[in-house]
Amino acid sequence: MAGEDQDSKTEQPTGKRLNEAREQGDIIMSQELKTAASLAAITVLVWWVLPKVMAKAQSYLTILISEPHAIRVTTPAELVDVLGGLAARMALLMAIPFSVMLGMGLAMAYLQTGWLITFSKLAPNFAKINPLSGLKRIFSVHGLVDFAKSLAKLTVVATLFYFVVRDKVKFLPLLPSMELPAILSFLHSVLIRLLLTVLGFVIVVAGADYAWQRFSYFKKLRMTRQEVKDEHKQSEGDPMIKARIRNLRIQRARQRMMTAVPKADVVVTNPTHFACALKYDPETMNAPVLVAKGQDLVAFRIRELAKEHDVMIVENPPLARALYAAVEVDREVPPEHYKAVAEVISYVFRLKGKLRR
Hints:
Elements (H helix, E strand, L loop, with lengths): L1 H7 L6 H9 L7 H35 L10 H38 L12 H4 L1 H8 L2 H25 L14 H41 L4 H12 L2 H22 L5 E4 L4 E6 L9 E7 L1 H12 L3 E4 L1 H10 L4 E2 L5 H19 L1
Parallel strand pairs: 1-4
Antiparallel strand pairs: 1-2, 2-3, 3-5
């Protein structure tokens, strides 16, 4: 059943599903990328910073190693002060490389996940404390695969180390006869070559691991079609409820429209299929306004209201169809219909004036 359920999850996760997973702390995170970033920082430090740090450290240690007699210490407290000051200077020198390494690791984590604060991962989970559960995780397929990957990486790194240093081994017997700066320079060049080689391999592994983590992440969050539909209903609303709301809005708009028919000046008809009610006040309006329109039964209701309230009805099929198609309710008549509407309005106003006289 689990396999069938997994096979039914064919849809990519929605934005809502991804946001919920992110809020729970379930994100794409490749430890290999963090390792590659830290190793890159180490390589840079060893290449450019380490010689300067060692030169500075050598100046601190020169007096202690080469000229210990120059240190004037008369009491144990003074010796503690001297050694404490030296240790503080060395700690300060080493703090810079370690800070860079830590900063690179944090920067790579930020680039992968962005700014995220969640406490869901801090909630106690007693299943993780259970020794049996721990053994199951260790000896599970996932655990064995991780162990195999670690062993393979260790094997490759050891192989790379062998190929890098095998040509340098013949120089090792010569090191005792060399001066200290030459020895340090030789070891520094070997270390740089080794770090660059391993860094290249780690970058390849990190890229592959990130691609795999991304694929696994989206595969884990896949959804069934029914889940997508249910989420769409929750976010957009049930279609039946939306249709009900839309019908209520149409009914209310129609009621408001019908209340405006008795106040209209004229109703232009098709004569049976369309009806458009117009109102125009030269003192307050720039152009006539369409206060109501309808088709078939609604048009019939508009004509009935117009008859009940003595609103003039004018048959003009082309104008009625044009107004119904082009003008929304409570909007002014567009300029292209000014001439036809003006003729109707003028006719009605003249007729009303004769009736009053």
